[in-house]
Write a structure and sequence with these properties.
The complex is a heterodimer.
Chain A: E1 2-5, E2 8-16, H1 25-37, H2 41-61, E3 62-71, E4 75-84, H3 90-93, H4 103-107, H5 115-122, E5 125-131, E6 135-143
Antiparallel strand pairs in A: 1-2, 2-3, 3-4, 4-6, 5-6
Chain B: H1 3-9, E1 13-16, E2 28-30, H2 34-40, E3 46-49, H3 54-62, E4 67-70, H4 78-87, E5 91-93, H5 98-107
Parallel strand pairs in B: 2-3, 3-4, 4-5
Antiparallel strand pairs in B: 1-5
The chains are: A alpha+beta, B alpha/beta.
């Protein structure tokens, strides 16, 4: 679903868990959208990296997710809500190098325990909440207003 | 150094992107771990990797990499080639292993990602 108006742009994407062959497709599309809208290149790259890491996490660990891209003149908001096993210990998951990845994930070049910390590093604002057995939600925000730029 | 010079130095085969061989490469990085490429890669990087699935090309595209050189004679799958062609990312393949390919480039003046300079 796409919504476009003078004050904003919004689009929802569905990500399927364990769909390794398509992993990264949605973030590749999001990057194209951001480039077309004319967002600053450095923000396009930071947002694309965060989106890609988040998408890979869903493919690797969750059953399914909805990723919502919201853009207003002030900010770019990536909101991810997944359904799946959730994260037992968010604090540990945020540590670089901590990972519960399987060999299959590592063969894809992922699962090094860098994903969540890298999302946080690239974002201007980052929020994570998780309910074990239910799912995880991420709010990844980038300021588009130059004076608030990171 | 241009991609064409890199192709010759690494005795590489061009899988896709003949038309971009005059592009200038100013720095490079090597990793099989895409998590690391996403964390430490910079736009414009020449990525050397032994990971030949589509994820290598998707990752390179996300960070605006200039080109990919596959080491150990590897070649990407059809999906990877397709994504590279849609996004204008040249793909090369060299028979050299990672260490040798990186060493050859570094020895010929192609530096790594800036920020971690070695002391002389």
């Amino acid at each position: 679903m796409t919504m476009s108006s003078e004050d904003g742009f919004s689009q929802k994407f569905e990500i399927t868990g364990r769909d390794f062959s398509n992993a990264g497709r949605i973030s590749t599309s999001i990057k194209e959208i951001l480039k077309e809208i004319g967002i600053d290149r450095s923000i396009v790259i930071r947002a694309s990296i965060a989106s890609y890491e988040a998408e890979m996490n869903v493919v690797m660990y969750a059953d399914r997710a909805v990723l919502t891209l919201n853009i207003t003149p002030e900010k770019l908001h990536l909101k991810l809500d997944d359904e799946g096993s959730g994260i037992e210990n968010v604090e540990m998951a945020m540590q670089e190098g901590f990972s519960t990845a399987t060999d299959e994930m590592r063969e894809m070049g992922f699962g090094a325990g860098m994903g969540l910390p890298n999302i946080k590093k690239n974002a201007d604002k980052f929020k994570i909440s998780s309910i074990p057995g239910k799912g995880t939600s991420l709010d990844i925000i980038f300021c588009l207003n130059k004076t608030e730029k990171k | 150094m241009t991609l064409k010079e890199i192709k010759e130095l690494l005795q590489a085969e061009v899988i896709i992107g003949e038309e971009s061989l005059d592009d200038e490469i100013t720095f490079a990085g090597g990793s099989d771990l895409m998590s690391d490429v996403l964390a430490f890669g910079k736009p414009g990087i020449l990525l050397l990797t032994g990971l030949s699935n589509a994820q290598s090309v998707r990752t390179a595209n996300i960070i605006d990499a200039k080109a990919i050189v596959y080491v150990r004679g590897k070649k990407p799958d059809e999906v990877g080639i397709q994504i590279a062609s849609e996004n204008g990312i040249p793909l090369l393949s060299t028979k050299f292993m990672m260490y040798t390919a990186c060493g050859l480039l570094f020895g010929h003046g192609v530096p790594g990602v800036s920020g971690l300079e070695h002391k002389k």
